[in-house]
Design goal:
By secondary structure, this protein is mainly alpha-helical. It is about 60% helix and about 5% strand. α10 runs antiparallel to α11, α38 runs parallel beside α40 and α46 packs antiparallel against α47.
C-alpha cells in the first residue's frame, strides 16, 4: 500500500461511498485492463495470476464482471502455455458458470461457449493427453460441443458411471496427475477430478473403492496423505482433501499391510540429508512454487534462495533440474525486489556470534534457533528459507531435518549448543498442538536412525582416524539425544495418541534402566514399578490389544488399577463397574489428603464408572450419574464427551443441548465426540447451515489430525479416518435431505451405508463408532426402514463380537419396519438368545417362527439336532430336514446341515463297526441307534445312510461353494472309510461317480492331491482315475505338476497308473498331447538336475553346458510350461450361492505365468543335499526362483503334504473370529514332487534365515564376543555339566539381540505390527509343530519375512517325532530360545504369545476341526512315506500303513490334550535347574512317551512352554541346533 503503483490504482479499487469495502466491479475492470497492458509477458506469471483470479472470483461471490478477466487471461496466456493448468482453469470456469447460471444467464452462456468450450476443444485438438484430467462437464446445452469433443477422445461414457476396469484406469491416471503436479492450483484440480470420479462411480456402486486393487488404492491413499501434509499452509485444501478421504471411507488397514502409506515426500533418510542442492530443489519445487500466491513471505524466500544460488554460481544448474512449469514460475524472482519489512510473528535468527538464549515455544522457533547454530556458507541458504516456515509446518520439519544433519556433522557447533537445542525440542514435547510433538518425534527418529547407521558401519572402520571421527559423531548424536529422554517421549506419545511409539519407547526405557543388571531382562521378565505396569496396560488397551494388557498384568505387581484395567480390556464391564464402585467407596472414606487409591483419583474413578455404563450401553444411567455430580472437583468437564454421547444415543435432544453447555476440558482430547453431538443436534433441528458449519469445523480439525498422524503411518491415522468416514456419511445424508428431487426407496440408503461400513476394519469399536451415529441420523430424517436396518447390523455386530447389547423384542422394536426386515430381526433375536445360552427360549422362538419362514425352521432344527442337544429323534429330524429342503430347494445350508446330521449318525455306526468287528452285511438290516440307551431309531438302513450322506454333501456343492473344502475332504474320507470297512463301498463310489457327472472340474481340482494319494486303492481307482483325468483335461498345465509324482514315481504300480492317465488324456487332442509331452520331458530334466552332484568347491552350474534343454531355445529344445507358483497353482474361486452360478463357466485361474527358459547360472548350496537355486524366466522377463532339491534318505512328499496341511489350517483359522482378528495364518509355498525324493520348492521371497539375522546383529552390537559353533562344540565336549556350561559360559557371551532387528523400523506402527506378527506366527508354528512332531528347527530352517516379521518354516524332513529318535534326541518340543523370547518385548511369552498359543491350540483341537485335519493327514495312510515302506520285507507296504496309523494316532492324542514331552520336574532342593524328564526317566528311555490325559488347552500350552524354555533341556540339544541363538 506504500508503493506509488498502489496510489495510482487505489481510486479505481475503493468503493465510491468511501471506507475500506472492496468494489469488486471496479477491481475486475482494473484487472482486465492490466492484462491487456501486459499481454506479452502475462504467461510468465500464469500460475500466480490463476490463483489470484481464483481468490478474487471466490471473494466476489462469483460476479459476472469477472468474466472479462478470465477471457483476457485465457486469450493472452494462450492454450499452449496453459497446458499444465488447463484442468484447474476449466474447473474454476465451471464453478463460475454454475454460480452465474441462476441469475446471469448471458454471462453463463459466455463462459460456457467462449471459454469452456473453446478451451476444451483446443485441448482435444492439441493436447489429448490432458483431456482425461479435465473435470466432468454437466449436461448443459451450452456445453454440448465440449462434451462431444471430450467423448470423441475418451469415449461415449465419459462422466458417467463406468465399468470397473475403465474406472480403475481413469482413477490411476488422476492419481498420477496429483503426484506429478507442481502447482497448487493443478493439485486442487486433480483433487477435484478424483472427487468427481469417485462420486460418479459411488452413485452406481457404493463398494467401488473397496473393490479397487490394493496397489491402486494404496497409491491413491499415499497421494492424498502426502497432499494433506504438504498443504499445511492451505486450510481450504486440507478441508477438501479431508472431504475426499471421508468420501473414500476408512479402508481397512490390513489392505495396506506392509505398505508405507504414511511417509510422503517430506520423509528423509541419512543418505539424502547431505545433499544441499537436492534440498534446495525440493524446497523450491515442493514447498514454495506451489504456494507463491498464499503469502508474500514465500515470494521473498524464493527471491533470497535464488540470490544465494546466484552468488554460488548454482542457479542455472538448480533451475535446470526443475520441471519446465516450475522453472518458469520461479524465473521472475531472479530479478524481483521484495523486502522483509516486519515479518509478523517470525522468529529471526540471531547473528552467528550471539548465543541463543531465548526459550522457544513453537517448532518454527526451534528451527530458527537451530539455523542460528549453523556455521558456514549453507547458513545463508537456511536463513533464506526461514520467512516461509511460518504456517507451513511441512516446510519447517523438512528444513529442520537438514539443519540437524548439518549440526551433527559439523564440529564448529559446541556440545553445549547442541544440548540447548535438544532441550528446546524436549520442551516442545509438551506443546498443546499435537503436530508439534509429532515433528519432534520425527527429529528423534532421524537421530536414532543416524546413530544406528553409524553403528552399522563399524565393520568398515580400518583406520584410527576413522574410529576417532566415528566416536566423535556418536558422542554428538548422544548429546543431541540425551535431553529428549525415552520417558519424555512416552509421556508426549500417550498424550498425542501415538500409542505404538509410547510402547516402543517405554520398553526401551525399561530395558535401558535394566542394562546395568547382568541378568537377561527377558529371562523371567518382571516389572517392579506399579506405575510402569499400569502405563504398559493403558498403552496396550488404547492399542486395542487385550493380549498385551494381560501380559503386562502377569509380569507386573498386581493392584486395583491393573486389575480394573484388565477387566475392562476383557470387556467384563459388570465386574469393572463393581471395582470402580468399591474404589469410590474407599476414596470417600479416606481423608482428603489421602484420596488416592493406587494412583487413581476420584475423577479417574468416576470417569471409569461412567465408561463402564457407556460400554454396557446404559446411557440413561450414565446421564443420571453425571447429572448427580454437580460441579464436584471439575469432573463435569472431563465427563462432557460422555454426556454428549449418551444424550444423542438416547435421542434426548434437550439433554444434549444441556450437555453441550457443560464446561470443556482444557486438553480437548474428546472434541470430536462433542462436535459430533453438535452435528446430530443440527440434523434434529433441521438447520442445514448450522450443520454445514459444524461438519466443516469438525472435518478440518480431524483432517489436521490425520495429516499429523499419517506422517507416522496409516494405522496411526486410522482412528481419525474413521471420524472422517462418519462425518462424510452425515454430510451425504444431509445432502439427500436437502435435495427434494431425491426419493430413495426404503432401505436403499442403509444398503449403501452398510456396504461402505463393511470396508472398514472388522473390529467392534471401529464399526460401532460408524453405525451408532448413522442410526440416530437416519431416525431424525424419518427414514425408519434404513435406521432399523443399520440398528440390526449393529446388533449382529455386537453378537458376533460377544459384546453386551440390549435388544427389545422385534415384535415391538421393528413393528414399523418392512416384512423382510422384521423376519431378519426375528432371526437375529433367536441367535442372540442362543448365544446367551438361553437355548430353550431360542428353540421355542425358532419353532414358532419356522411355521412361516423356512430359514428359521432350518436354524431351529440344526440347533435341536446338535450333539449337545439331541432334542429330536432321527425320524422327526429327518422329516424336518426333508420338508425344509422342499421349501428351500436352492439353499446350500439346508442340504449341508441335513448331510451333516446324517454324517453324525453314520460316524457312530462306523465307530461301532470298527470296534466290534461285525460283518458289513449284518448291520445293514438292523436299525441304527443314536447314543447309548436311546430308543430313537434311524429312518434308514446303513446302505441308504451312506448314500444319502454323500448325496447331501455333493448336492450342497451344486447350490453353493461356501463349504467346498470341508465337504470334499469329508467325502473323500468317507469313501475311504467305506472301502476300508467294506461298508457298502460299491454304492458309495457309484454315488460319487453319479454326482460328479454334474460337477465342474475346478471343484475336484482343489482336492487333486488327496485324489492322487487315494487313487492307489483298488476299490477307488476307477472312480478317482476318472475324476483326475477330468481335471487334467480341463486344466492340463496345472494338473500335470500334480500328476508328475505318479508318472516319475519309484513305485512301478504308481508309475504305470500315471502313464495310463497321461496317455488317455493325451489321446483326446493334439494340444493335450503336446502339453503332456512337454511337461514329461522337462520334469525328467529337472529330476536329473536335482540329483546332479557337482564336484566339491563348485557352487554354481551352467545349464547351457550340463542341461541345455532347461535353458530353452529353438528346435527340439523349445518348451513352454506354467511356472508352478502357489499363487498361480491355486484356484481363485468366487463365492457362489446357486446352481446357476456353480454350473456357470468361470475362469478360476485368472493369472497364468508361462516360462520358456531358465536362467543359465544355477547356484549350488553347500549343504549335504547340494540343492540348486533354479530361476524360471517368465515371458515378460520377470524371474521366479525355485529350489531344485533331492533328498538322499528322506521323502520330499513330507514338505508337499505339510503345505497342504498348513493350507487347511489357514482355512480353519480364517473361520475363527478371534484368530482372524489376530491375523493368525501360516505362510505356505508350493512344492512340486518330481519323484518321491526329488522336487521343486517355491522360493519364499523377502525372507532371511533366523540365524543369519542374529549373527549379523551380534557382529554389530557384540563384535568379538560371540563364538563359532566349532568353539562351542569343543567347550561342550569337555564339559562335565552341560547345564552349568550352557548357563554360565555360553549364554552370557551370547545375549539376546533379535529385538534390535525389529527396532530398526523408524515407524513405530510398523515396528509394533512386525513384532506382533512375529509373536503370533511363532506361536502358531510352535503349536502346529508340536502337533505334527516337527523337529530339526535350527536357525536356517526358520526364516523371517523382512517386511512383516512373519515366521516361515522350511525343510520338513524331521516330522512326526523323528527328532526324538535321533542319536542325540531333541529334548524340546519346539524352538523357543532366548532370542525368540526377546523379540516379543518386555512381556516375553506372556500376553500376546501365550494367548496366541492357546487360541491356535483351541482351533486345532476343536472337535470339527480335529476331524478335518486328521482327514488331511490320512494321505499318509493312503500313500505311506518311503521310509515306512522301504524295508526288505514281503509285508513292507502293510507295515508302512500300520506305521502311518500309529503316527496319525499320535497326532490325534496330542489333539486330545496329551503330552509326549513329560512334566517339568525339579532335580534337587538345592538346584534350580529344570528338566522335562529326570535322569532316571531318561535312562529308561521315556523320552517321547505319552504323559497327561486330556489336559485343557491352557494346561497343555503351559506344559509345552515350560519344556521348550527349560535350560537343562536346551543344554542337551545337539550343538548344530544352536540352543543359545
Amino acid at each position: 500500500r506504500q508503493s506509488l503503483k498502489w496510489a495510482e490504482y487505489s481510486p479505481l479499487l475503493r468503493d465510491s461511498r468511501g471506507g475500506d469495502t472492496m468494489d469488486y466491479r471496479r477491481l475486475f475492470v482494473a484487472i482486465a485492463l492490466l492484462f491487456e497492458l501486459m499481454h506479452e509477458t502475462l504467461h510468465r506469471y500464469a500460475p500466480k495470476v490463476l490463483e489470484f483470479l481464483q481468490s478474487a472470483t471466490q471473494l466476489s461471490n462469483y460476479q459476472a464482471e469477472s468474466v472479462r478477466c478470465w477471457q483476457n487471461y485465457v486469450k493472452f496466456v494462450g492454450v499452449a502455455r496453459l497446458k499444465p493448468l488447463l484442468p484447474a482453469v476449466v474447473g474454476e470456469l465451471l464453478r463460475l458458470a454454475q454460480r452465474l447460471r441462476p441469475h446471469a444467464l448471458e454471462a453463463c452462456r459466455l463462459v460456457c461457449e467462449s471459454l469452456i468450450c473453446g478451451l476444451t476443444e483446443a485441448a482435444c485438438r492439441q493436447h489429448e493427453d490432458v483431456v482425461q484430467f479435465l473435470p466432468s462437464l454437466p449436461a448443459w446445452t451450452e456445453l454440448k460441443a465440449a462434451r462431444l469433443a471430450v467423448q470423441k477422445v475418451l469415449g461415449a461414457n465419459h462422466g458417467q458411471s463406468q465399468d470397473a476396469a475403465l474406472f480403475h484406469k481413469r482413477l490411476h491416471t488422476a492419481v498420477q496427475q496429483l503426484e506429478s503436479a507442481s502447482q497448487q492450483a493443478v493439485k486442487r484440480a486433480a483433487l477435484q477430478h478424483i472427487s468427481d470420479l469417485v462420486s460418479t462411480q459411488q452413485a452406481a456402486s457404493p463398494t467401488c473403492i473397496s473393490g479397487l486393487e490394493t496397489h491402486l488404492l494404496a497409491g491413491l491413499m499415499r497421494s492424498l496423505l502426502r497432499f494433506l501434509w504438504e498443504s499445511s499452509a492451505w486450510p481450504g485444501d486440507q478441508l477438501k482433501c479431508g472431504e475426499l478421504l471421508g468420501q473414500l471411507g476408512a479402508v481397512d488397514p490390513s489392505r495396506f499391510a506392509h505398505l508405507d502409506l504414511g511417509r510422503g515426500q517430506t520423509s528423509q533418510t541419512p543418505q539424502d540429508l547431505g545433499n544441499i542442492e537436492l534440498m534446495t530443489r525440493r524446497v523450491l519445487a515442493d514447498f514454495l512454487a506451489p504456494n507463491l500466491t498464499s503469502k508474500n513471505s514465500y515470494a521473498f524466500a524464493v527471491q533470497e534462495i535464488l540470490k544465494y544460488l546466484q552468488s554460488n554460481n548454482q542457479s542455472d544448474r538448480v533451475l535446470g533440474a526443475l520441471k519446465e512449469d516450475v522453472r518458469e514460475t520461479l524465473k521472475p524472482y531472479l530479478h524481483s525486489s521484495y523486502q522483509l519489512i516486519d515479518p509478523e510473528g517470525a522468529d529471526r535468527a540471531a547473528p552467528a556470534h550471539e548465543p541463543v538464549t531465548v526459550a522457544v515455544s513453537t517448532f518454527e522457533g526451534a528451527v530458527t534457533q537451530a539455523v542460528a547454530l549453523v556455521q558456514g556458507k549453507q547458513r545463508a541458504l537456511f536463513e533464506a528459507c526461514l520467512p516461509a516456515i511460518q504456517g507451513n509446518h511441512a516446510l519447517a520439519l523438512f528444513l529442520m531435518h537438514h539443519v540437524v544433519h548439518d549440526l551433527l556433522n559439523s564440529n564448529a557447533t559446541s556440545l553445549s549448543d547442541l544440548g540447548a537445542l535438544s532441550s528446546s525440542l524436549a520442551g516442545l514435547l509438551g506443546a498443546a498442538k499435537h503436530e508439534t510433538a509429532q515433528a519432534v518425534f520425527s527429529i528423534v527418529d532421524d537421530v536414532i536412525q543416524r546413530r544406528d547407521s553409524v553403528l552399522q558401519c563399524d565393520l568398515t572402520v580400518v583406520r584410527a582416524s576413522d574410529t576417532k571421527a566415528r566416536d566423535r559423531l556418536l558422542h554428538r548424536i548422544e548429546q543431541m539425544r540425551r535431553p529428549i529422554s525415552n520417558r519424555k517421549v512416552v509421556a508426549a506419545s500417550v498424550r498425542c495418541g501415538a500409542h505404538a511409539r509410547a510402547l516402543q519407547f517405554l520398553e526401551e526405557a525399561i530395558l535401558e534402566e535394566h542394562s546395568g543388571n547382568i541378568v537377561n531382562p527377558f529371562d523371567n521378565p518382571r516389572i517392579q514399578s506399579q506405575e510402569d505396569c499400569f502405563l504398559l496396560q493403558r498403552i496396550y488397551r488404547d492399542l486395542d490389544e487385550p493380549d498385551g494388557v494381560l501380559g503386562a498384568l502377569r509380569i507386573g505387581p498386581s493392584s486395583v488399577m491393573t486389575r480394573t484395567l484388565q477387566l475392562e480390556q476383557a470387556e467384563r464391564w459388570h465386574d469393572a463397574q463393581a471395582c470402580y464402585e468399591e474404589q469410590l467407596t474407599v476414596l470417600d472414606r479416606a481423608p482428603a489428603e489421602q484420596r488416592s487409591n493406587g494412583g487413581l483419583g476420584r475423577q479417574d474413578v468416576v470417569c471409569g464408572l461412567v465408561r463402564c455404563n457407556q460400554n454396557m450401553r446404559r446411557f440413561e444411567s450414565s446421564l443420571r450419574l453425571i447429572q448427580g455430580l454437580g460441579d464436584e472437583e471439575g469432573a463435569r468437564a472431563r465427563l462432557k464427551p460422555f454426556a454428549v454421547e449418551a444424550a444423542w444415543q438416547l435421542s434426548s435432544w434437550d439433554r444434549l443441548q444441556d450437555a453441550l453447555q457443560m464446561p470443556s476440558a482444557e486438553e480437548g482430547e474428546d472434541d470430536f465426540r462433542v462436535s459430533l453431538g453438535k452435528s446430530l443436534l443440527a440434523v434434529h433441528k433441521k438447520e442445514p447451515e448450522t450443520l454445514k458449519t459444524a461438519l466443516s469445523e469438525s472435518m478440518l480439525q480431524v483432517t489436521r489430525s490425520v495429516a499429523s498422524a499419517a506422517r507416522e503411518s496409516y494405522t496411526r491415522a486410522y482412528q481419525h479416518l474413521l471420524k472422517l468416514h462418519v462425518l462424510s456419511e452425515i454430510a451425504w445424508l444431509s445432502g439427500i435431505r436437502a435435495d427434494s428431487g431425491q426419493h430413495p426407496a426404503p432401505g436403499a440408503l442403509a444398503k449403501k451405508l452398510l456396504a461402505r461400513c463393511n470396508a472398514t476394519a472388522p473390529t467392534y469399536l471401529g464399526r460401532q463408532s460408524v453405525l451408532s451415529p448413522l442410526r440416530v441420523a437416519l431416525l431424525e430424517m424419518n427414514l425408519t426402514e434404513d435406521a432399523k436396518q443399520v440398528e440390526l447390523e449393529f446388533i449382529r455386530l455386537s453378537r458376533k463380537h460377544s459384546f453386551p447389547i440390549v435388544m427389545e423384542h422385534p415384535a415391538t422394536s421393528f413393528c414399523h419396519a418392512s416384512q423382510e426386515l422384521q423376519v431378519r430381526a426375528q432371526l437375529e433375536w433367536g441367535k442372540l438368545l442362543y448365544t446367551r445360552d438361553f437355548r430353550h427360549d431360542a428353540l421355542q422362538h425358532m419353532t414358532k417362527l419356522g411355521t412361516r419362514y423356512p430359514k428359521a425352521r432350518l436354524l431351529g432344527t440344526r440347533w435341536a439336532t446338535e450333539a449337545s442337544s439331541e432334542l429330536l429323534i432321527p425320524k422327526v429330524a429327518e422329516a424336518e430336514f426333508e420338508e425344509i429342503k422342499d421349501k428351500l430347494p436352492e439353499d446350500e445350508a439346508a442340504w449341508f446341515y441335513h448331510a451333516s446330521y446324517l454324517d453324525q449318525l453314520l460316524k457312530e455306526q462306523m465307530t461301532s463297526r470298527s470296534t466290534s468287528g461285525d460283518a458289513a452285511g449284518g448291520a445293514a438290516s438292523r436299525g441304527l441307534r443314536r447314543g447309548q440307551g436311546s430308543a430313537s431309531v434311524c429312518p434308514f438302513d446303513l446302505r441308504k445312510l451312506v448314500v444319502f450322506t454323500l448325496r447331501g454333501y455333493l448336492q450342497a456343492l451344486h447350490r453353493g461353494n461356501k463349504r467346498l473344502h470341508f465337504i470334499l475332504n469329508r467325502v473323500l474320507q468317507l469313501a475311504w472309510d467305506c472301502c476300508e470297512l467294506n461298508l457298502h463301498k460299491v454304492e458309495a463310489l457309484n454315488e460319487i461317480e453319479q454326482q460328479a457327472l454334474t460337477m465342474e472340474p475346478w471343484m475336484w481340482y482343489v482336492v487333486l492331491p488327496q485324489l492322487i494319494s487315494r487313487v492307489h486303492n483298488p476299490d477307488m481307482r476307477k472312480v478317482f482315475t476318472n475324476l483326475i483325468m477330468s481335471v487334467m483335461s480341463k486344466y492340463p498345465h496345472h494338473a500335470f505338476w500334480h500328476v508328475v509324482q505318479l508318472v516319475r514315481s519309484g513305485n512301478k504300480d504308481h508309475q504305470r497308473l500315471g502313464h495310463e492317465m497321461t496317455l488317455a488324456v493325451a489321446r483326446q487332442n493334439s494340444e493335450h498331447h503336446r502339453v503332456m509331452s512337454t511337461y514329461a520331458n522337462l520334469c525328467g530334466e529337472l529330476n536329473n538336475l536335482a540329483t546332479a552332484n557337482p564336484p566339491d568347491g563348485h557352487y554354481t552350474m551352467s545349464l547351457s553346458r550340463h542341461f541345455p534343454v532347461l535353458v530353452g531355445g529353438g528346435g527340439r529344445t523349445k518348451w513352454k510350461v506354467l511356472i508352478p507358483l502357489q499363487s498361480v497353482m491355486t484356484a481363485q474361486i468366487p463365492r457362489m450361492r446357486s446352481q446357476k452360478e456353480t454350473k456357470a463357466s468361470i475362469n478360476v485361474f485368472p493369472e497364468l505365468l508361462f516360462s520358456e527358459r531358465c536362467l543359465d547360472q544355477v547356484d549350488v548350496f553347500r549343504t549335504k543335499e547340494r540343492p540348486k537355486k533354479l530361476v524360471f524366466q517368465s515371458q515378460d522377463g520377470r524371474e521366479y526362483p525355485f529350489l531344485c532339491k533331492a533328498e538322499r534318505r528322506g521323502d520330499l512328499r513330507k514338505d508337499s503334504r505339510m503345505m497342504l496341511f498348513g493350507t487347511m489350517v489357514n482355512q480353519l483359522l480364517e473361520q475363527n473370529p478371534d484368530a482372524r482378528r489376530r491375523n493368525l495364518r501360516l505362510i505356505t509355498f508350493n512344492v512340486v514332487i518330481l519323484q518321491e525324493s526329488c522336487g521343486l520348492i517355491e522360493w519364499v521371497s523377502k525372507t532371511r534365515g533366523l540365524r543369519h539375522i542374529i549373527d549379523e546383529l551380534w557382529k554389530r552390537f557384540r563384535a568379538g564376543h560371540q563364538q563359532s559353533v566349532r568353539e562351542i562344540k569343543e567347550i561342550f565336549d569337555h564339559s562335565k555339566d552341560l547345564h552349568e556350561t550352557f548357563t554360565k559360559q555360553i549364554l552370557p557371551r551370547h545375549p539376546p539381540v533379535l529385538h534390535r532387528w525389529f527396532a530398526q523400523c523408524t515407524d513405530p506402527s510398523v515396528w509394533l505390527a512386525k513384532r506382533l506378527t512375529f509373536s503370533r506366527s511363532q506361536a502358531l508354528w510352535c503349536m502346529l509343530g508340536y502337533i505334527v512332531g516337527l523337529g530339526d528347527r535350527h536357525g536356517e530352517n526358520i526364516l523371517l519375512e523382512t517386511e512383516t516379521g512373519r515366521m516361515v518354516h522350511v525343510d520338513f524332513d524331521c516330522l512326526f517325532g523323528k527328532g526324538m529318535l535321533l542319536e542325540r534326541p531333541e529334548t524340546v518340543p519346539f524352538r523357543l530360545t532366548q532370542n525368540c523370547v526377546a523379540a516379543m518385548g518386555v512381556t516375553g511369552i506372556e500376553g500376546v504369545f501365550r494367548r496366541s498359543c492357546e487360541l491356535s491350540m483351541e482351533v486345532l483341537r476343536d472337535k470339527n476341526n480335529k476331524q478335518t485335519l486328521l482327514s488331511v493327514l490320512h494321505v499318509y495312510i493312503a500313500d505311506p512315506l518311503i521310509e515306512w515302506t522301504a524295508r526288505q520285507h514281503k509285508d513292507a507296504e502293510e507295515i508302512g500303513i500300520m506305521q502311518a496309523r500309529v503316527t496319525i494316532g499320535d497326532v490325534e492324542k496330542k489333539l486330545n490334550g496329551m503330552l509326549n514331552v513329560g512334566a517339568v520336574v525339579r532335580l534337587g532342593p538345592r538346584r534350580e535347574a529344570e528338566s522335562v524328564l529326570s535322569p532316571e526317566e531318561r535312562g529308561r528311555g521315556l523320552l517321547g512317551r505319552d504323559r497327561g490325559v486330556g489336559l485343557s488347552v491352557a494346561g497343555q500350552v503351559d506344559e509345552l512352554l515350560k519344556a521348550a524354555m527349560c535350560k537343562r533341556n536346551l543344554s542337551e540339544m545337539y550343538v548344530g541346533w544352536q540352543p543359545w541363538v
